[in-house]
Amino acid sequence: MQRRAVCPIEDLPPGSMKLVDAGKFGVGVYNIDGELYAIANYCSHEGAPLCLGYVGGTTEYDPDSLDRIRRVREGRIARCPWHNWEFDITTGENLADPKKRVRTYRVDVVDGQVYLTA
Amino acid sequence: MSVVIDSNVQPHFRYNAEIRRYLPAPHKLRAIPDVEQQWYQAPGGDYRADLYGDGYPGSDPETVAHHLFEQGGADYAVLNPLTRGNIADYLLNSRICAAVNDWLLDRWLEPDATGRFLGTIRVNPEDVRGAVAEIERLADHPKMVQIGIPMQSREPYGKPMFEPIWEAAAAHGLPVAVHINGGNGVDYPPTFAGHAYTYPGYAAFMPLNSFVHLATLIIEGVFGRLPDLRFVFSDGGYDILTPLMWRLDTFWMSMRDQTPWVDRFPSQYLTDHVRYCTSALDGPTDAGLTERWFEFTDKSDLVMYGSNYPHWSTTAPADATAGLNDEQRAKVLWRNASELYGIGTRAQGSPT
Predict the structure, then answer these.
(1) What residue segments make up the domains of chain B, in order of their start?
(2) Contacts of B105 (CB under 8 A, 6+ apart)
(3) Ranges under pLDDT 70 in chain B
(4) Cβ contacts of residue A81 below 8 Å, gap of 6+?
């Protein structure tokens, strides 16, 4: 583990991600609505580069609507490019099975500079 | 010896025309196929060899009681009669189901002072309104312990048009037993890929259709919406349960967002919602593997002894539980059925 500089905060605006060459597989640093999060670029299923998949929302059961489904958590969900496993970037939890997590890392900002501890 | 509950027995009419006594006037003269009208007949006959002779096999309550209780060692038997013939008229089919139910009450359940025979309310899923009405008519009868429907269906039972039937069953706390039925509606191919030519092809694959019903009941959210709904698959088929549940669980990891009403692994619905009756065709051919195999996908909690009397494949309690350890045997012979049906608590020696 070491704390390293990633980039100035203005280079990581809300809705973007920077893939940092850290650890064996890299770490994705995300800005979600102004909050920073980091997860391993390694899907807990078969090791795919998780951070290269789409970031979006997910669905929730909505018993009162006609299609019984609603879109939630927009911008917070990383979707694995290999088999569509969904992970909440803010917690590392897999949405189908919370036990199948992706590793999360600490991110902080000092004097406009983003730091990752990984 | 603890209690034994036989959860799968098919009583029969004494003769083809007996059903007419129980049909209402507008339907009394309709053509109804014979009891034995099926596309696939077992070599040597559909029924146990010693049952041919006086009357139709499985049609005399005293003889059946003697075979199941005195000779077979069972304490209770859940009777699930089949309904007759290939008929496209779904309204007539509902009347046939009602006639079968009235016949079961009249000839089997009400004359039985010992309380050992329990019954099934047969309904016709092709006629949703009729099926719900039949459940409402008979659900409060103390000897009716489940709803009965055919395995053969135009659509898998997880489809929304059937849901009012499952709601009615769940509201009355009655499990829904799915059983291969030669009649009731038009017949459908016995395999996913069409018609088998011979009886072995039919008998080996037909019970596996239960998995399609099961998968849709989970994926379409029926079990999720109806926490009290329970399905019994009376023809076995649990030997493919494990690989197919693995497959369903795997797909769910990837496609959960399309069915968010499924809020747990598909396999996690089984214990609360699904039971199987034992079948002579399920299980490893090497009895030494049975004990371990039975723990896969929690089958010890899902499988209940069913003799399948009077069919050729009738299985005695000892044969149905060969290779199981004591705890597994107790679950299969009485505990699982006792919990499902709420029966077996009055019998001598019952640990419930």
Answers:
(1) 5-348
(2) B119, B138, B141, B143
(3) 1, 35-38, 85, 183-184, 345-352
(4) A48, A49, A50, A52, A53, A54
Residues of chain A with Cβ-Cβ distance to B254 below 8 Å are: 83-85
Asked if B227 has any chain A CB less than 8 Å from its own CB, the reply is no
| B352 compared with A79, residue with greater pLDDT | A79
The mean pLDDT value for A40-58 works out to 97
Q: Which residue of A has its CA nearest to B255?
A: A84
Contact B257 A58 (CB under 8 A): yes
- Please give the residue of chain B at the shortest CA–CA distance from A79: B254
Determine the residue of chain B that is closest to A96 in CA distance. B253
Please report the pLDDT score of residue B327 as a whole number: 97
Asked if the Cβ–Cβ distance from A86 to B256 is below 8 Å, we say yes
Q: Which structural domains are found in chain A, ordered by start?
A: 3-117 (2.102.10.10)
pTM: 0.93
Interface check for B264 against chain A (CB to CB < 8 A): the answer is no
Determine the Cα–Cα distance for residues B65 and A91; give it in Å rounded to an integer.
Answer: 62
| Token pair listed for A105 | 């890392």
Residues of B in contact with A69 (CB under 8 A): 260
Please tell me which of the candidates B255, B261, B265 has its beta carbon nearest to residue A61. Answer: B261
The answer, for A69 touching chain B at a CB cutoff of 8 Å, is yes
**Residue B145: predicted pLDDT:** 98
End-to-end CA distance of chain B: 14
pLDDT, mean over chain B: 92
pLDDT of residue B232: 98
- Is-contact B145 B78, C-beta < 8 A? yes
Say whether A61 and B256 touch across the interface (CB within 8 A): no
Superfamily (CATH) of domain B5-348 = Metal-dependent hydrolases (3.20.20.140)
> What pLDDT does residue B27 have?
92
Rounded Cα gap, residues B203 and B182, in angstroms: 13
**What are the DSSP calls for B162-225, one per residue?**
GHHHHHHHHHTT--EEEE--S-SS----SBTTB--SSHHHHHHHGGGGHHHHHHHHHHTTHHHH
Q: Considering only alpha carbons, which residue of chain B is nearest residue A44? A: B253
Considering only residues A58 and B193, tell me which one the structure prediction assigns the higher pLDDT. A58
Question: Per the CB < 8 Å rule, is B254 touching A84?
Answer: yes
Asked whether the beta carbons of residue A83 and residue B253 sit closer than 8 angstroms, the reply is yes
Per the document, the length of chain A is 118
